[in-house]
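User: Okay, second chain of the day. Same drill as before: sequence in, structure tokens out.
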Amino acid sequence: MTIRAVLLCLVFLPACLAWADDDVATGLVQEAFSQISSAKNAYVSLTGEVAVGEKRVAIRVNAYRSGPDKFRIETYEGKSFTLIIADGSHIWRWDPAAKEYTIVAQAGGFGGAIARMKTLGPAKTAIALNLLAGDTNLLAFPETTITNTAKSDAGSQYTITMRQLVGKGEATQGEQYTFKVWKPIDGETALRSVEFTKVTGSGSKRVMTTWKAVSEPMEDNTTYASWFQFSPPPKARAVGNLALNGN
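Assistant: Same drill. Structure tokens below.
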């Protein structure tokens, strides 16, 4: 920080403290995301609810990554189950209830695989995939707060909230992320959990949908290898079998 910046901070101290908190918060989340994206194997579990008519149905997404190009996405929505596997060469989508599968060529490296899987999976898989990929684009939110919620000789746990609301009254829309980040005295910063809330409307008409996720590296274990392979079961029907047509 330059001398001029220090003098300005003395004049505008509250604003500078907020700016410093924003920098610290963003830095901690970036460190935690970097640990996930750089780990050889990583795992994300996302839980929440979706509206189906007048009912709310529980949903869970388990997302796994092995190396830079193998992924496994399990989506449980009520009693239904969908599986997406990227084996390094192809991306498979399997619907066991319909006994249908889709296979497409896996191309474009890490980012290409993530983008294609988002188009094949239910909408909420995108949040899990963003966490698995260490996507920090969401860190551009204008409102940021940071609290040291637990401190010990081993390190500190921080609660970081990033929020953006637009519009007024019933037209209000916004998103909020709450991160639990562990910063050890020795070792790497870890993302303990993420809570994502989407807000629509206001007052008695406000609707809030909350998703919770945990994300962490996995041990380097060869027993995971079979998780990232898929063979269509007997009598399974191909739908949109693009890879076999050279696409």
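The first helix runs from residue 3 to 11.

User: Thanks, on to the next one.
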